[in-house]
# Entry
Amino acid sequence: MRQPEHLKIVGLKSTTPRLKILSLFESSQEHHLSAEDVYKLLMASGDDVGLATVYRVLTQFEQAGLLVRNYFEGGKSVFELNQGKHHDHIVCMQCGHVEEFYDATIEARQEKVAIERRFSIRDHSLYIYADCTNKQCPHKDLRADPMPTNKIGAAQSLD
# Structure
């Protein structure tokens, strides 16, 4: 999708670290990667790219519009390829798994709310934080009961 000429178009030289990082985003099964994720994947594939270089390249790609940075709960930022299409995210609070989605009804409702309040939306993002029901979620067994039962009987007083 993005070849070295794309880097030139946005004003960046086609250096080895840039090409490797861009290739990683294009080929990765995971679409949302932190700088640490990128670094670990590069190290696992035998590429010698320092963590500082990874941070610098990700920031350059973000500024050039090649990547989009998302700030999810917990202060961790993750990057994804800028596909030019709006989408929202649902994030597992236990394992960090992120899924993208687009819902026309939600988008229409947000537009209606803005118009009713005499606003014009320039940009927006929706992050839904939840617990995934993925059987492979490594934290599935560690979750607290989502619907704690009331241990106080109906006849008991809180006084």
